Amino acid sequence: MENIRSLTDKTAIGLSLLCALHCLAFPFAMVLVPSLAGLSLDGEAFHLWMVIAVIPTSLFALTLGCKHHKRYWVVLTGLVGLLILAMAAIAGAKVLGETGEKSLTLLGATVIALGHYWNFRRCQNNERCQ
């Protein structure tokens, strides 16, 4: 079970980093490689699909780790990050503006990644997680 929890923590961190990278680098990539415009990665659908992927992965990893290390603030941190990310995806650029959406997405992704990092470290340092 340790391997599954560890893998899901790492996957959730990777998905959060992908969200952040998408927000920061995609506009520059579009300028450098205009054919990326055909991939439809700049629309709201991409954000919704990322949130749909991140939520179950994060919930699974955080609750599985918390069952062992009993640090509920780690789960709370991840939940706050998920809430922020979901708000950014649901409200989108039409409500928040481009800068607001990107800022919320980056904040949410960072908070989620921190929660998973702390979850991962707690389980590595806790013999009950092994």
Strand content: under 5%
> What is the global morphology?
elongated
Residue runs with pLDDT of under 50 for 5 or more positions: none
**Total beta strands:** 0
Largest sheet: none
What structural class do helix, strand and pairing data support? mainly alpha
Q: From the alpha carbons, calculate the radius of gyration and give it in angstroms.
A: 16 Å
Order of helices and strands: HHH
Fraction of helical residues:
over 70%
Query: Gap between N and C termini, in Å?
Result: 8 Å
Integer average pLDDT: 79
* Number of distinct helices: 3
Topology readout:
Blueprint: H1 2-32, H2 44-69, H3 72-124
Helix pairs in contact: 1-2, 1-3, 2-3
Structure description:
The chain has 130 residues and is mainly α. It is 85% helix and 0% strand. It has three helices and no strands. α1 packs across α3 (72-124). It is elongated. The mean pLDDT is 79.
Comma- or semicolon-separated keywords:
single chain; 130 residues; mainly alpha; elongated
Q: Short description, anyone?
A:
This protein is mainly alpha-helical and 130 residues long.
